[in-house]
Amino acid sequence: MVCMDDSAIRARIEKDIALFYSNISSVKSDDPTLKRIIDLSEMYARDSKSYLEKGDFYTSFSCISYAHGLLDSVKEIIK
């Protein structure tokens, strides 16, 4: 089992947040349902940032992981 210190955990989450915003910039859809899912993914990413600022790494990581999952599902649908 690998134990990470707080700075390494924070860096990992920040990397995932940056990757999310890099990926979302290329995802567009006119479909109202897909737009809603994209909006939800952005909300989860914002929540992740908020939890990270509060030092709640577990919730922050969960939120950004969920945001990535939502975005990946939209990307798969619009291929």
Protein described:
The mean pLDDT is 95. This protein has helices spanning 6-24, 32-54, 57-77. The N and C termini lie far apart (38 Å). It has a domain at 29-79: AF1782-like (Substrate Binding Domain Of Dnak, Chain:A, Domain 2, Up-down Bundle). It contains 3 helices and no strands. By secondary structure, it is mostly helical. Helix 1 runs antiparallel to helix 2 (32-54) and helix 2 packs antiparallel against helix 3. It is elongated, with a radius of gyration of 13 Å.
Quick overview:
By secondary structure, the protein is mostly helical. It is built from 3 helices and no strands.
Number of helices: 3
* N→C terminal distance: 38 Å
Rg value: 13 Å
Average pLDDT, rounded to a whole number, is 95
- What is the H level of CATH, i.e. the homologous superfamily of the domain at 29-79? AF1782-like
Q: What proportion strand?
A: under 5%
